[in-house]
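Can't paste images in this forum, so I'm doing it all in text. The chain is below; anyone willing to post the predicted structure tokens underneath?
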Amino acid sequence: MTARGVDGSTSPDATTVRIPVFFVAGGTGISAETLGNLMLQQFPGLAFARRRIPFIQTVEQARAVVAELDSARTDTVVPLVFSTVSDEAIRTALQQTRCAFIDLFGSHLDTVERVLHVNATRDVGALHGVGDTRRYDARMKAIEYAMEHDDGASVRNLAGADLILVAPSRCGKTPTSMYLALQHGLRVANYPLVEEDFEDGELPRPIRGLADRCFGLLSTAARLSQVRGERRPGSSYASLGQCSFELRRAEALYRSHRIPSLNSATMSVEEMAAYIMQRRGLGDS
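Text version of the structure:
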């Protein structure tokens, strides 16, 4: 399988050695990916080739995964493996890898057990939120809501949103919306600002009156131009002048309507989500 980039960073030079990184899990692997990437972000000068391997549910599967992990090791490169596998037998099998194995679940759970003087259930369903059916259903509904209300595709039931992300095109609305829905169960709509929205200084009609649920995203003109250029190279949409204009007017719009905002150019989705939730007083559902 191809490596899966998840941190939104720019691609390194083709000659840069990319360190293989694997996120392995008994469930979806989202927790391993999120926690592992938080650590990898502390090494901005290195290039990584990321891959998620989810749903490892038997010892036999674990042994096959170990063979795959070890095949990525070379004399000069040692892959990193971030694991949230909870089953002890499967975890033990995975630890036979010759790669660097970072156990994000087992070792820390042992510490919690010692402190609480209670043995953990080590239930995979509980780890991924499936054990709480009501919580799981709420998150699935939040994801459906975010998909329906992505990029202004629907304005139906905007009043039912916990949060409305507002921004010029390509400032990170969609990945942030989906992360907040998936990880925190929040019903997030996102609405794009286009040039005509800046003419009178008013919020676009569909979100007018909902400023108390809005949060604005910005970027730098250079970064926005680069991202747009990858989608529509050489277009006026991607020009530095157009990007500068839209960002200036968006910032003025946020300020006049007292909408909090952040610059997404150098922030990860995880950091953006945490900041937005704190500013808007939102918590997990």
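The chain has two domains: 18-127, 133-280. The first helix runs from residue 30 to 40.
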